[in-house]
Amino acid sequence: MTARLQKLEREDWPACFQLFQESVHALAGGAYTREQCAAWAPMRSWSDGVEQGWRERLAGAWACKAVADDGRLAGFAWLKRGGEFDMLFVAPWCGRQGLASAMIAELEAQAAREGVIALHAWASHAARPVFERAGYRLLRANRIVRNGVEIDNWLLAKGGWREEEK
After folding, report:
1. Residue 15 — φ and ψ, nearest 5°?
2. Is the pLDDT of residue 1 over 70?
């Protein structure tokens, strides 16, 4: 399977939302429990509320999608203008083929053209090795609470990004 990277458009958002849910739930039984996946990505339909949230998050971001030869959405990612990778997801049917790495490289290049080189990500267990292969260094383990459920992830950084002191 080969895929090509393209600009993420507004009409892609519902398919990306579905891919996000499918990708998170594919992690159940692996790195995360079913309960953690359900808290992270509750299975629900695309709605005006979800669209508004994505509009706000994407307002200040570079974004791309990966499209398979057969036209199916294979992945998507976005990087906020402040240097934070907010989303990086690959469809479960095409994992481990370099798509996540290609999307990271594409968005890093877009950011660099605008002078943004200090980058960071709050990566899942599955995404952590992808970011590490892309040159991100592990800063620390992290725990978030979503819908009352604790979920572990990792803070990684590249290009001199530093976490603000609390």
Report:
1. -65, -35
2. no
Pairing of strands 149-158, 119-123: antiparallel
Specify whether the CB–CB gap between 118 and 160 falls below 8 A: yes
HSE-CB at 128 with a 13 A cutoff on CA atoms is: 14
pLDDT band at 122 (very low <50, low <70, confident <90, very high): very high
Q: CA angle, corner 100, sides to 73 and 35, nearest 5? A: 80
Helices (H), ranges, the chain:
13-26, 34-40, 48-58, 99-113, 128-133
Are the C-beta atoms of residues 37 and 24 closer than 8 Å to each other? yes
Lookup result for tokens 């399977």 = 1
Mean pLDDT of all residues belonging to the chain: 93
Burial of 122 (0-12, 13-18, 19+ CB in 10 A): middle
Residues sharing a CB contact under 8 Å with residue 105, sequence separation 6 or more, in sequence order: 134
**Rounded Cα distance, 69 and 108, in Å:** 24
Question: How far are the Cα atoms of 24, 39, 81 from residue 96, in angstroms, in the given order?
Answer: 15, 25, 27
